Amino acid sequence: MKIDPRHLRYLRAIDTHGTFIRAAEAEGISQPALTNKIGILEQQLCVTLIERGRFGARLNAYGKLLLRHARAIDAVLGQAVSEIELAQQGQSGPLIIGATPISMIELIPKALETLDKQNASLRVSVIEEYDDLLLDKLHAGEVDVMIGGLLVDQLTPDVAADPLISLPLEAVVGRSSALWDRNEVSLAELLEHSWALPASGSVIRSYVDAIFVAAGESMTNQYWTCTGLHGLKSMIRKTERVSLMPGHAFRIEAKAGELKGLRLTDPTSSRKLNLLRLKHIQLPPYADLFIDALHAAAEDHVWV
C-alpha cells in the first residue's frame, strides 16, 4: 500500500486551518474533493483520522501520528530545495542543528569552530530549544541532529543516541549566600536555605530530583522555578538562593566571580549530553564532519 504524499499535505492543511472549507481554499481545491482525498487516506489505513463536529475538524490520535510524517515530508522537500539553491551559489548545506541551552555553552560552539575551518562555505542553522521540543522537531525532519540529555527510556526506537559527555551536578550559590566561602556542602545543609530550581518537567530538573532520591531526602518546598537557564542563574546571582546544576552551565559566571560551585558530599547525578539522530535517515557528508568535530570537542573537554 502506497500513500499519496499529497493526501498528507491535505491532512496538515486541515490541522492548520481547523475546517475542511478553509483547508480546501488554502490548497486550491474544492471542499468535496478534499473530503474525498481524506476519505481515501482513511480507507487505506483502516482508521479514522479526523473528528468532525461543531468545533470544526480536529485530528485524533491517529491523525496526529500521521501529521508528524507530513511535517517530515515538507521538511525533506524544503531542505532539498535549499541544498540545490546553495549548490548553485557554490555553498553546501543547510545543516540544521537542534541544541539545548547546556550544549550551547562551549560544546557546540567548539565543534562549529572546527567545522568552520574545514568547510567555511557550509550553511549552518542552530535551533536552541529544550529537549522535548527538539525531539519533536527531530522526528518531523526539521532538524538533522540534536544534542540533548533525554534519558534512554524517553527515546523511541527510531532514534539513535550516541553519548557525548557527562557533567556532574554541583551546588551553585551567589556572592550574597552564606555558603559563598565554602568549597563543599551536604544536601541536608542546602535544605536549610531557599532554592531556585529548573522548571518541573525539564530534563535537568529530573537530574536534580535524582539527587534527592539518592540521598533519601524530600524535595524542598522553599523554591522558585525558572524555565530558562539564563534566568535561573540570574536568580541565584541576585539573591541568597541556592541551586543544583552542572558546573559547565555557570562556568562564565564563576570565572567572573559572580557564581560559585560547591562540591556535593552526598551522591550526585550528572547531566548527560547525547547526540541524537533518526536511524532511518542518511545524513549528508557535511553532517558527518560536524558529528566528528562534536565528538572531538566532547573528548577534549578542558572547557568544562
From TrEMBL:
GO terms for MF: DNA binding; DNA-binding transcription factor activity
Protein name: DNA-binding transcriptional regulator, LysR family
UniProt record similarity statement: Belongs to the LysR transcriptional regulatory family.
GO CC annotation terms, alphabetical: cytosol
Residue intervals of the HTH lysR-type domain: 3-60
Keyword annotations: DNA-binding, Transcription, Transcription regulation
